[in-house]
Amino acid sequence: MKRYYLLATLGLCSKLYAQEVDTTTNRLEQVEVKAYFNKQPFLRLTSSAAVLSSQAIQSQQSPSLVSAMNRVPGLRMEERSPGSYRLALRGSMIRSPFGVRNVKIYLDDFPLTDAGGNTYLNLIDPYALGQINILKGPDGSIYGANSGGVVSLYSKGFDRSSKPEVNLQLTGGSYGLFQEQLNTILPFSQTQQLAINQSWTRSDGYRQNSALNKKNIQLNYNWHYAKTSELKFTGFYSDLGYQTPGGLTAVQMETDRRQARPKGGPNPGAAEQKAAIYDKTFFGGLSNQTHLSSKMTLFASVFGSSNQIKNPFITNYEKRDEKNIGTRLYLSYADLLSQNLKYEVQLGLEAQKGWYAIDNYDNAQGVATDPQAKDKLENSQQSFFARTQLEWLERLQLELSLGLNESKIGYRQYFPVEQEDKANIDFGSTWMPRAALSYLITPMFALRASISKGFSTPTVAEVRSSDNSINTLLKPETGTNHELGLRLHLWNRRVVLDAAAYTYQMNNAIIRQLRENGAEYFQNAGKINQKGLEVSILLYLITPQVSGVVRSLQFASNFSFNDYSFRIYQVGDKNYQGNKLPAVPKTVWVNSLNILFPNQFRFDLLSNLTAAIPLDDANSVYAKRYHLLQGKLSWTKSVGSRYQIRLFVGADNLLNEKYSLGNDINAFGGRYFNPAPLRNYYGGMSFNF
Hints:
Pfam families: Plug, TonB_dep_Rec_b-barrel
Structural class: mainly beta
Distance between the termini: 46 Å
Membrane topology: Multi-pass membrane protein
Subcellular location: Cell outer membrane
Number of strands: 39
Mean pLDDT: 90
Family: Belongs to the TonB-dependent receptor family.
Main location: membrane
């Protein structure tokens, strides 16, 4: 273990600050980041936050966001098999069996999280993203129902380019990995620009029955049709198919970690039933921003999606037809109260409506046969919000915001017994306040504090889960988050420190449970104490220079401490009070190292040390701690004035750790584990012209 910790100290974790480098003066400039309707310097931001640049997203394997996302303290992303993701932000995986819960995700300011609360993050091609902004802690006052935070994905192509640009990247690797990615930017004029991102990814997968085939095309268009107005469009089509190998017991994993879930009792195996998920999705959004005056701005957007999903599973074959529409509107006004006091006010709303037809059939080795259940559900969410910000001498920043969230689900059963009338589950109206401040003690040292309410309604996938029943007893999760933090820049921002401590008291936490046949259901779990500490240090040991063996050297280390436990939780005669929350490691220490050598050789090293993870409510089973080490070497060469070529090679799990990622929580029969690949390799090239 000593060598693991030594290697871990050689890493650089995620950039909590997006920064630009002036190579002439070696001066680091802090970039303003869009948060709460406008761009703000990170040093004075009132919330805990992180930014992942395009370089950070592409610093390891390009087909997946897992490595990049896990650089952020407080955020955890898992990959059960290629294409099957889980993501949690300041929370556990107990509510994210096949996706994202408690986190609101936006794509180019359009909600990717649908009206039913689901987020199909695996539809997005990471290569199409230019930046990811992350706000940690409840932000329901502005962004609707959430308790973990907000993730904003920003596509390439919205920064106006002076000339056309085409980039083609090809990647190949272990287990049949192949990926082709094409990014094209077409500026029609000084006011109009179109970006096209297209990709195809396939993999045989590490385990049996874990193949992936994903095709994606995305269009981004922006038009400055007036000096004060801009129109933006984001749309994509994704054809995603990935097999699901299922969980293994500890004995099965030791015997053959590459096998899919075998036959057990009356249930056939995952490969025999051709267990998989197929998702064909259209998504689109159109927004308009107009500066009505030098002080007033109006923003309006409409968006929608259509998902056709097929999910052959061990015990059934599910077909889902999901449609969503929505709008987001707000009016912003900014002015001076005095020479030293600025203020701004925003008023707005976000509303979404979804329609979901969910049918389940018997599964005869990948073929849907006799019907088991048929239901139709409707979900509506509305969030009205108001916010004000006061700024005094660019030193003190005070924010007060208030949201009113309304949510309800309508449902009607059509099989096996047809329900005469539609029934409703009304989660009521909930006020979600937030108060926060940031104060610059010195020009490079800021303290911040906030208090905010978290609120997360059950998703459609939890109300109508894979056990084919409508759960009318689920209640929304609620809680209050208290947080203190600091940011410190030293030596002309060559050293950046960010730290935060928080406590979140959650009521009615929603817990995932599994039945004997593997079907899942959810229940409320009383109260949960969530206490955490996040610390990040970013060091520019060598700022960019034009001479020397090492042209630049960045080192950082991010650490998360999670003290999550059940405060009140009893199931029948079993009392789990005081137990650790499943799926949450006590500590996560993520590091990486970035070195630039002469002739544009670049080396990226990423280290992730994750503590043991409890896998059931009783804390009787743990996933072992692991140390994941990844490395990538790239070389960029300009050919003439118009062309550029880049070659890269990389390796994942350099230490050949035997670990499990994307574990099943409270799994029946001990099938907790989804073994991750051992040491594997990839390489490729990109052409830019």
